[in-house]
Amino acid sequence: MSVCTSLQAGQPDKDKKDRIFPNEKMIKELNLSDKQIENLQKADNELKAKMESFRDQKNAFKKEMKGEMKKMKDDRREMLKSNLSKDQYIAYLELQVDRLQKMNFRNKRPHGPRPQFGPQRHQGNLQRHQDNANRENTPEPSK
Hints:
The chain has helices spanning 24-30, 34-83, 86-104, 123-137. By secondary structure, it is mostly helical. It has a domain at 16-107. The protein is flat, with a radius of gyration of 31 Å.
């Protein structure tokens, strides 16, 4: 009463949800009985359901936290508006813009992942190699 299908090599990972546990190779190598196969499949289905539930809770928690953080930022903005004069609030916003620009554009590049592909990844190396080539091709002054 084996109800398993084998996976072909090279099959994309997008079919992960369609995989059968235990697979034919495991059944054969471990010499599993039909009862063991049934128990393993049942336990695997329960585990998959728990994992899916956990993922849903995690996503809902992230959305909830994001909403709460936005509300706190809005509350802070309102608190500043109510306690500062109009000119002070404008000056505060200008300081925030300056701070963010300094933070994000240090060394003339934004923070975050560096480009992994393309010529922009090697600009520093390219400049260094060009400088070295220019030095090698420039005749030394005679003494």
